[in-house]
Amino acid sequence: MRFYIIIISLILFSLQSAVAGEPVIKTVDDPAAGTKLRIVPTTAGGWAVYSLEEFKLFSFDSCGVLLWSKAYSVPPSTWNSNDFLRTRSGGFAFMTRVLVGGVDATIVVSLDGQGNVLWSKVVDDPQFNHFPYTLSEDAQGNLFFYGNVSHVSNSPVNNIICKISTTGSVLWTKHYNHGGIWGGATRTSDNGLLARTGSTFIKTDNAGNVQWTSQLFSTSTYSYYAPEEVSDGYIFTTYTNGSNYINFHKMDKLGNLVGGTYRSTDFAGQPPRPRPRSNGNITCVFGNTVVEFDKDLNVVSQIAFGSGGAAFSGTDICFLSDDTPVATGTVASALFVSKMDAQYHSACDVASPPVAISNITATQSFTSAIATSYPLAMVNYNLTVSNLSFAQTTLCRPVKTLSLGPDTLVCQGTSLTLENQTSDTFNSYLWSTGAVTPAISVSQPGTYWLQVRYNCEEDMLTDTIAIVEQPGVEIDLDGNSQSCDSVRRLLRAPVCVGCTFAWSDGTTADSLEVTAAGTYWLTVIDSIGCAYNDTVQVEIVKCDCFVYLPSAFTPDGDGLNEIFKPLYDCDMQDYRLRIFNRWGQEIFASNVQEVGWNGRFKDVAVPIGIYVYRLEYSPIIHGNVEALVVKRGRVVVIY
Fold first, then answer.
1. Which of 422, 430, 474, 476 has the most neighbouring CB atoms within 10 Å?
2. For residues 440 and 452, is the Cβ–Cβ distance under 8 A?
3. Beta strands at 459-469 and 489-492: parallel, antiparallel or unpaired
4. Which residues are CB-contacts of 132 (< 8 A; sequence separation ≥ 6)?
5. Total H helices, total E strands in the chain
6. DSSP reduced 3-state for 204
7. pLDDT at 446 over 90
8. What is the percentage of the chain residues whose pLDDT exceeds 70?
9. Of residues 180 and 552, which shows the higher confidence score?
10. Single pTM value for the model
11. Minimal CA–CA distance to 621: which of 486, 458, 423?
């Protein structure tokens, strides 16, 4: 029996599913996009960016390619105060402050997934000027806007929460008596709201009823954005007056300031709004730097991006359904979007000093808030939409490498996995075999090529590899599997330059002497590590047949030399032994080799004397039955 064992070392990489869209930074060539931008994930791995100042909405696919953009004709206002979100229904909604009849009012607009207006409503509230801050949505798709209001005559300032149905009708409105300026509200995991104005926080249930009110005091800080919920509390930002250093604060779920301190960074400017990540951390954009904090405000990741020395001013960040981060902001008066990998690499990272954080003592107190129901109506407003068109510029995207490795000599009859030998993955694959998978298995020698595309099919690479088959080594140990017991048997390895040998008994010579029956095998390993095996079963047999018959025997009952029969050392068939007396009478016959003559005839001992025998047999040599042999002779019976 002959078979081959193939030994070959291959470098195997885990196949990774290519995702649509590599890290990339692109700009939209619209110098009037504004600097206050919001970004949200959309369907199929894309995202949308909304300009809070210019009321423009830009929709991108998963590669950062601009699909469409629209502008909305919002009435003028004396002050921009607005927000934008992605709705559970797959559309969008935005809110802003508008001037209607000499009074500042709030307009809320609902859009479908293509940016078309579903409805737009303006608050009918001639008694109060509105300063709306944030727009949020509950699990049922109802909208909430939060802000401040001041009476047109006696100027009392209240906080306001208004709940609006999915069709734009007011469900309820409540005023709260804390007043103040700046802030926002966020939906909480218990389906309530946490509203913030300045350093005052009002926690409500889904119906706007007050659950607790907390005030955090720090005379050197100023407050802006809504808090963001983490697993054990809420995190929000402020900045330090004078230095403009950005600070982070944390309170627990009951409004208690954690640790009695806040954390001050060495970043300056307007505080970012923290954005949650699926791992429970929060992420903020500071200019061109992205920082991820854990829920206790420890820095766990920091990356900065740039291109050609341009000054990036990041505004907002979001996470797609697969947790991919995407940021937006402005660079050189243009809107930019930056799709990053899971570690925030953008394909054009730059050096950035680590964030410096210090703890500063702060105080707080608990107070009360009074919620008062207030009648409020929404009236239809005709909002027109304009389609926009802009060119895009790619600032940077990853440079990848493709290598199938060097031309390869492989063992005869083996298969080989071909794939990219670098760690890069690609959007699409095309092999010379027609396969479109990242790797293929080939079993025939030849030349193979792979063509790949990446950066959303924009870039292409090709590499070629030649597979050459090593000539095999023929081993034949079969020969004659039988060996004479008196003959020396030698098993020989084939002639093979540069080969090594391994016999079944552990020896490594080019031959093996066989002296016993059994199974013997040889492994030959050639110069490139290919291994070939052969096995032989050796049987030791007689190559002749020796038969001896004694000339006398003594059947006297003493237990010695009692039986007359042949001695032999081979197998035989057609056996027959016959004994005759001196008158030619047959007195014994046997067809069984083991049964001999005991010197008796008809159970009576024969007399002393000479008797004649005739032996017939066909010997079996090398497994073959030979011709019949007849031996005649005399045997003496002695007592």
1. 430
2. no
3. unpaired
4. 81, 82, 83, 95, 96, 97, 106, 145, 146, 147
5. 0, 59
6. strand
7. yes
8. 93
9. 552
10. 0.70
11. 486
- Rounded Cα gap, residues 217 and 215, in angstroms: 6
Classify the C-alpha dihedral 435-440-446-447 as positive or negative: positive
Handedness of CA 123, 128, 130, 136 (dihedral sign): negative
Confidence of residue 8 (pLDDT cuts 50, 70, 90): very low
Q: How many CA atoms lie within 13 A of 5 on its CB side?
A: 11
Average pLDDT, the chain: 89
Beta-carbon contacts of 603 under 8 Å, excluding residues fewer than 6 positions away, are none
Q: Which helix (H) or strand (E) holds 155?
A: none
pLDDT classification of 78: cutoffs 50, 70, 90: low
**How, if at all, do strands 261-268 and 459-469 pair?**
unpaired
- Which of 432, 467, 466 shows the shortest CA–CA distance to 451? 432
Q: Measure Cα distances from 453 to 17, 62, 402, 432, 480 in Å.
A: 14, 16, 10, 15, 60
Measured between alpha carbons, how far is 247 from 356 in angstroms, rounded to an integer? Answer: 11
For residue 2, which of 537, 601, 590, 562 has the smallest C-alpha distance? Answer: 537
pLDDT class for 488, splitting at 50, 70, 90? Answer: low
pLDDT tens-digit map of 144-188: 999 999 998 887 889 999 999 999 999 999 999 998 888 899 999
Q: Which of 545, 544, 539, 546 is nearest to 483 (CA)?
A: 539
The answer to whether the beta carbons of residues 598 and 572 sit under 8 Å apart is no
pLDDT in tens, 207-229: 999 999 998 876 677 777 899 99
* Beta-ladder partners of 50: 38, 57
Residues 6+ apart with CB under 8 A from 337: 25, 26, 27, 28, 39, 47, 49, 60, 64, 326, 327, 328
Picking from 32, 39, 86, the residue whose alpha carbon sits closest to that of residue 334 is 32
- 7, 85, 110, 172, 287 from 140: Cα distances, Å: 63, 15, 15, 15, 36
- Given a cut of 50, whether residue 91 has pLDDT beyond it is yes
Q: Return the beta strands (E) in 375-514 as ranges.
A: 377-380, 385-388, 392-396, 408-410, 416-419, 428-431, 439-442, 446-454, 459-469, 482-484, 489-492, 500-503, 511-514
What is the pairing mode between strands 482-484 and 531-541?
Answer: parallel
On whether the CB atoms of residues 327 and 285 are closer than 8 A, the answer is: yes
Picking from 140, 58, 53, 54, the residue whose alpha carbon sits closest to that of residue 92 is: 58
Closest CA to 239 of 221, 261, 266, 257: 221
pLDDT of residue 105: 92
Residue type, 275: R
